[in-house]
Amino acid sequence: MGFSEILLIIISSAGLLHGVLFAVYLCFIKKKRTLPNLLLGLILIFMAFRIGKSVMLNFGNDLEPLFIFAGLAFLLLIGPLLRWYVLGMTHFSFKFSNRYLLEVLPFALVFIMSFFIKENWFDENNKQAIIVFGSVLIFIYLHFAFYIFISGRLLYKIKKRYKAVVLTKSQKAIFEWLHVLIIGFIVIWVSYFLNIIENTIPYITGPIVYSIAVYFLSYKAFQLKITDIDGDVFKKNDNESLFGRISKLIVEKQLYLESDLSLSSLSKRLGVSTQKASEVINQYAKQNFNDFINYYRIQDAKKMLLDVNHQNYTIASIAFDIGFSSLSSFNGAFKKFEDTTPSAYRKKGVKQTFNNPDIE
């Protein structure tokens, strides 16, 4: 065995090992053992069997037909697991239904059939055996493609359902993750399918592509903290009505004019935790608490700075009138929102009024 072959074995097996370790982490080590994490772990384990078969078939000799067919059969199980995983990540309190067992039937039939395959069937160049093998192979890959398609279709429908809803950070992370995951499976499927079409690409390409994909998917999973969340983040809540209450207090009741207003005091008025109030403001206003309050203060400041009835007011007095406790914090907030200082904003407004006397 040459150096290039050894290198290919290492590269193609690296992703396999990484996937198994990731699966062990999800199923046995991680404290939060959710159903979606278990499903993802099973997908990685069964993909490892499938990829392991490919590596051994490419570099090994006289591989048992039982091992070949069993490895292929696992694709019939990975498809349903992928669909269930998408459901588990997008539905609150997802649970298995007995009818889901019917989706495992193709896997069970092919897996059991693999125990009756004899090596001499292929040694004797049996045309019937080759036709059966080819038919089963095509069915397995079309079955896998079908499940990738319906999983993508399912994700599309769910995203469309939430199109008019303001998504939380966790909900966005799940949609992004599932989108990347399905693309990863498409890439893996294409690399294997092209191989069975008259060896369009080398057989070892499949395991190498899988290795690259599983490393990238692992990176995205931890980047998005996807193993810490599941379909529970789509549980219906009163966030929208809570933000309505916050807006009514801040905007309509002009609570933003109070200089001692804080997230803590606002939360007490609402009867919610500071974390909850902060989360809702971030979700719907796309701002943190301070920026949310200061935005409305700055809008008042802009009117007062240009109002002829307030020309005798110092900038400091305006700052205190609209709720700021110091001139420096007012200047900083004004510069952040308007990209200029209050004094420069007032001078510019006065100059425009002088040049255009018709402006009231």
From TrEMBL:
GO terms for molecular function: DNA-binding transcription factor activity; sequence-specific DNA binding. Residues 247-348 form the HTH araC/xylS-type domain. This is HTH araC/xylS-type domain-containing protein. Keywords: DNA-binding, Membrane, Transcription, Transcription regulation, Transmembrane, Transmembrane helix. Gene3D superfamilies: Homeodomain-like. InterPro entries: Homeodomain-like_sf, HTH_AraC, HTH_AraC-typ_CS, Tscrpt_reg_AraC-type_HTH. The keyword Membrane applies. The chain crosses the membrane at residues 6-26, 38-60, 66-88, 100-117, 129-156, 177-194, 200-217.
